[in-house]
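Side project, low priority. Logging it here so it doesn't get lost.
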Amino acid sequence: MKVRLLAATTHGREKLPNAPTSNSHVCAIELDGTVTCWGDEVEGNLTPPSDLGPVIDLAVASYDSCAVKLDGTPVCWGIETEPRFHPMPQGLKLKALRSKMGTYCGIKLDDTLACWGDEQHSHITFPADMKVYFPSP
């Protein structure tokens, strides 16, 4: 397999006692822009939507995965049912996407941030007008 981007996560039950199972999963953007995932299946984290199409970026978190479509629209799949889960903002268009544990942050087209996901550690909070530098490829 030849890929443009690889994103992976590994978690075991000893660190996350309330986790549904231990989880290690990987998703990759193949050369044609399609997403392929493998590893431990937890409520759909390995199955991108059938209409996803080619993507420009990809990130995986503890029990879910997200990608950015060619038009900048983020799409996520997997667990999003935790009571502390902050939903993805509506109408979002992104340049890039990263994740850590159960949280995603993306760089919007105006270079500001949008974050969603697990709020338990307050790492989705940032100044509303915060801008980031993102070099073009």
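Brief comment: The chain has no helices and ten strands.
Revisit when time allows.
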